[in-house]
Amino acid sequence: MTQAFNQHNVQGIGAGTLIGGNLTLMAHIMGTNSLPQGNNYLLFLEDVGEYLYNIDRMLHQLKRAGLWQQVKGIIVGGFTDMKDTTIPYGKSINAIVSEHLHALNIPVAFDMPISHGEPNYPVKVGGYYQLHVHEAGAILQEM
Residue 117: what pLDDT? Predict the structure, then answer.
């Protein structure tokens, strides 16, 4: 699977077992036995119908739970139908996510076609993947 350049991408190559999915559900399983333990993961995140401030809060929760130290790369799928409050949050979804992930020194690919929207390509949670983010875009490949 390939994706074109995104200004928020962070270049690099990472490989690992794919974990993740819906950000809201990932935030809910932090600190439980449902979250795999280890440090050789690619993390995939997407969500639908959430408020922007909730996305920011949940990303803080993943950081404080130590999840960023367990991943070798992050795949940011679609964040569809995001909602804002009557007093605007003031940032786009990509800007919010980028603020949390940009300084991690691992590859991060934005707008990968994995989400609740179209196009929507399947990935295998638990499969072993390589993520290559380069100047022209990103490639996610099952190994």
Answer: 75
